[in-house]
Amino acid sequence: MNTSIPAPSDHPGPWPARLDLLQSLTGLFLGLFMWLHMLFVASILLGPDAMWTVARFFEGYFLFGRPLPWLVSLFVAVVFALFVLHAWLALRRFPGQWRQHVAYWRHMRGMRHGDTTLWFVQVVTGFAMFFLAPVHLYLMLMHPELIGPYESADRVWSGGLWPLYLVLLFMVELHAGIGLYRLAVKWLGWSGAGRARLKRLEWAFTTFFLILGLVTLAAYVKLGIEHAPHAGEPYTPTWQRSAP
Ligand code: HEM
Fold first, then answer.
1. Ligand 1 atom closest to 219 (CA)
2. What does the alpha-carbon distance between residue 203 and residue 206 come to, in Å, rounded to a whole number?
């Protein structure tokens, strides 16, 4: 009798593969969302009126004629849920993967395998985000109406959130960039020269979003310092101010 054929009960079934796909899909959504999010947040670089317009747009202001901040809360709740799901799916595979990677490193002593190093970066940045991102997401969930040029700048400076954003920015940009690269390698099967080109592209995106993020954060800090004496006062767009 051939004993190498696993008994039906040993077969893992379709679920590990399904959960693996779900991890990739949630990662794809979150990674692409983070890049878009950075572009929206960076609207402050075009001036307070531009950022105010983007913030009100997501509240349906231009569609319904008045701001509906709960629309933003709803979207934050979806992102929050996907964030938790993605983290849970990653943790589920963690112990086995950790053992494999450590064994690989021991075996290859001295030799640095680029993609294995990237996996460790994902573990470290993912772990940091596990603690840092919920602080930000909870604030956005509960106070969506406090998103605006002065409101955000006050939170960043007077509310003392800039150190958290500074660390979170590096964690999220590294994690999203590497994650999207690994997804492309995994599902599109890129190898050789294609993979090397893809890696260069990934670093170009990561560097771009890191620089944009730092410049954006500096803009919120500057505005926050200027507005500190009036912290708490919301921003009124230029065209809504009554003439003196
Ligand atoms: C739908 C969900 C989200 C909304 C509505 C949102 C909104 C915002 C807003 C308005 C700011 C400007 C600062 C402020 O007002 O406090 C900001 C900054 C930031 N957010 Fe989010 N965010 C969301 C999700 C996330 C997630 C999931 C992460 C990371 C895991 C994240 C990371 C950051 C970082 C790092 C900054 C600082 C960026 C910079 O100035 O360089 N955000 N976000």
1. 40
2. 5
- pTM assigned to the model: 0.91
**Domains in the chain, ordered, with CATH?**
16-229 (1.20.1300.10)
Out of 29, 34, 41, 222, give the residue to mutate to test ligand 1, the one with the largest number of ligand atoms within 8 Å of its CB.
41
For helices 114-142 and 162-188, the axis angle rounded to 10 degrees is 130
Q: With beta carbons less than 8 A apart as the criterion, state whether 205 and 177 touch.
A: yes
Atom of ligand 1 nearest to the CA of 217: 40
CA-closest candidate to residue 165, choices 180, 152, 146, 151: 152
- Residue 1: predicted pLDDT: 44
In what helix (H) or strand (E) does residue 87 lie, and over which residues does it extend? helix 69-107
Region 43-72 average pLDDT: 98
What is the pLDDT, as a whole number, of residue 244?
A: 59
Mean pLDDT within 210-233: 98
DSSP state of 233: P
> Which tokens is 140 given?
């956005």
Residue 210 DSSP class: H
Asked if residues 182 and 195 have their Cβ atoms less than 8 Å apart, the reply is no
